[in-house]
Write a structure and sequence with these properties.
By secondary structure, the protein is an all-alpha fold. Helix content is about 75%, strand content about 0%.
Length: about 70
């Protein structure tokens, strides 16, 4: 089943995207700058969410990992 039709898989993909973008922005800040628009602007917005809301994102990652491992 595709990740678009399974809600748990969609949440996993979104969390991985946010975490990956935040990590890449910490390593290569010029790669995800704020002046990018369109498709690359989505990655910058995901990086900002990962930086600003990091306690909530990390809690969601742990909760998602536990739900994948236990169910």
């Amino acid at each position: 089943m595709s990740a678009l039709f399974n809600f748990n898989s969609l949440l996993t993909v979104v969390l991985l995207l946010i975490c990956t973008c935040a990590y890449l922005r910490s390593l290569f800040p010029s790669l995800l700058d704020k002046y990018k628009t369109g498709f690359l602007g989505i990655f910058w917005k995901c990086a900002r969410i990962g930086e600003r809301k990091s306690p909530y994102v990390s809690f969601c990652c742990v909760a998602m990992a536990l739900s994948i491992l236990l169910w």
